[in-house]
Amino acid sequence: MARKSRNAEPLGFEDTLWKAADKLRGSMDASEYKHVVLGLVFLKYIDDAFTERRSKLAADLVAEGITGDHAADLLESRDEYTAEGVFWVPQKARWEFLQSKAKQPEIGKLIDSAMDAVEVENPSLRGVLPKNFSRPALDLRRLGELVDLIAGLGLGAAEHREKDILGRVYEYFLGRFASAEGKGGGEFYTPRSVVKTLVEMIEPYQGRVYDPCCGSGGMFVQSERFVEAHGGRRNDIAVYGQESNDTTWRMAKMNLAIRGIEADLGPRWADSFHEDLHPDLKADYILANPPFNISDWGGDQLREDPRWRYGVPPAGNANYAWLQHMASHLSPRGVAGIVLANGSLSSQQSGEGTIRQAMVEGDLVECIVALPGQLFYSTQIPVSLWFLNRDKGNGHTRPGTPTWRDRRGEVLFIDARKLGAMVDRTHRELSDEDIARIADTYHAWRGESDAGEYQDVPGFCASATVQQIAEHRFVLTPGRYVGSEAVEEDDEPIGEKIARLKRELYEAFEESDRLQERVRTALERIDG
């Protein structure tokens, strides 16, 4: 079994926190109580950072001989905190005060009031924090117990911030919430290993990063980590995003705020298709996991939209609308990495095959990666990564490196369906080694000087010309191009064979669903 990513190891207290939060559910589902828990975790984090700054300030004042009323005034001076990048926490929002009232029947109202007070004092958080702790459906006794439990977690201490403790708690919770919510959870949570694969491949060192369906902001977090891990600075990239779900938009704002990431997510939540909040943005990097196969995206109202450069996407499926929306936001040398359902690689209905052909012939598609199944909490639909590039010539390179080779007229196909390892009974994860193998193959194919020499590997990767793709009717399924490994049929372990057959069955189910939809549509037209 492949080694599990070290970053995914539990911290020790997330599971305890999850179990305590789970008690809150009662008649509430995960989509409701997650905001209760994450809101409290956020409030505790900023209070910890505030308390730490207050203690240091108090010590500095003593060392300088400042005491009495003057010292008290400075300890309550908002500027002494915000100047150090610390959120100002008013007295009625401080954890010590809330915990003292945890057993009182008004605890829900007090927490709502605390959230209001924090927003008033910190403009970047206005309209973001959850304020529904006094709702009748919430068990106030258990809410008080949760306040007491969180009180014992030092979430905002300096050593924890360096280890990104709260960020990992957020990711743990988002993953558990996604699993509990089923399909809906996938609308805001993309598994870390999938995000990391995208980031490691397109390498967002410097420039504008955009996600038109940003969910909880995971793409931005990984991009910032990548920059810092490679010796860059956070302000080397500018972050732009948009999210159509109001509660998820607020979650993204909180998630980015606790990590100190400045991002323009627009003044509110909005639909990227019908209310593009960044209409003039030309991004250097786009990373996105749009909702799979959505049929109610309002495409019938956008038939003449200028974004459809490669063809009008079907009103019944937004996959090719997402691809073209993102392509329209790419700078002249921009690169995009996009997660889509496998059906987008081979669909022919409603003009999708024609659009795909135009994108390939227009030299926009650079690489396709087929991922293993069971990576997502919310769906078993097999997915692939699309990489689009506005400039595949030899002049497209990152700062400070030699030019890459000319890849015009070529597309790289990677079949990574056999990579990854099961981390529990239902979920698979790509290890750091798996991600490196995929990314290194892509970098070598692009001709990066430090990536080694590229060569096709049967069963794993192949470089194909547009002419070869045309011979396959512009179907972009990697398996058609990489071929098979030279192994005896009986050498395939039974466990892997079952997993492969399950993946193929899910693909067949997906194709069957599409065909049934076409038949139903045709029958409705006849009836009409």
Explained architecture:
This protein is of the alpha/beta class and 528 residues long. It has two domains: 11-163, Ferritin (Up-down Bundle), CATH 1.20.1260; 183-341 and 358-471, 3-Layer(aba) Sandwich (Rossmann fold), CATH 3.40.50.150. Helices cover 43% and strands 11% of the residues. It is built from 18 helices and eleven strands. Strand 1 (207-211), helix 11 and strand 2 form a beta-alpha-beta unit. The longest helix has 34 residues, at 30-63. The N and C termini lie far apart (56 Å).
Q: Which SSEs are present, and which pair or pack?
A:
Blueprint (H helix, E strand, L loop, with lengths): L13 H9 L7 H34 L4 H8 L3 H4 L12 H6 L6 H15 L18 H12 L6 H5 L2 H17 L10 H11 L4 E5 L6 H12 L7 E5 L4 H13 L4 E2 L18 E6 L30 H10 L1 E12 L10 H10 L3 E6 L12 E7 L20 E6 L5 E2 L5 E2 L2 H15 L14 E5 H6 L7 H4 L11 H34 L1
Parallel strand pairs: 1-2, 1-4, 2-3, 4-5, 6-8
Antiparallel strand pairs: 5-7, 6-7, 8-11, 9-10
Helix pairs in contact: 2-7, 2-9, 2-12, 10-11, 10-15
Describe this structure in a few short sentences.
This protein is an alpha/beta fold. Helix content is 43%, strand content 11%.
What is the terminal separation in angstroms?
56 Å
**What can be said about the biggest beta sheet?**
9 strands, mixed
Structural class: alpha/beta
Overall number of strands = 11
- N-to-C SSE series? HHHHHHHHHHEHEHEEHEHEEEEEHEHHH
The domain count comes to: 2
Mean pLDDT: 86
The helix content is: 40-55%
Detail the poorly predicted runs.
Answer: 1-11
